[in-house]
Amino acid sequence: MIVGLARCECIIYDAGSLKDKRAVLQRIMTRIRQRLNVSVSEVDYQDAWQRTAIALAAVASSKVPAEKEIQNALKLIDSFPEIERTITDIEWL
């Protein structure tokens, strides 16, 4: 069994309030949960308007399917024009 963890720092340029930021994050995290077999959560910068950190976790029997799910989740995040992924760290346990 292998666990893949990804932590992404992102910028939401058009967020003028925490409400704007949370609306964008809710849409992204809901889409990830609906389409992919990963867990997702905001893990840092909860009080910053235009900055966030999102964590993704995937569990699989080998590295290949876990890595595929994480990469698909990262591509999905990148597909939203209102958010820019800046720093991504991936760990394998």
UniProtKB/TrEMBL annotation:
InterPro entries: DUF503 (IPR007546), TT1725-like_sf (IPR036746). It comes from the Bacteria. Pfam families: DUF503. This is DUF503 family protein.
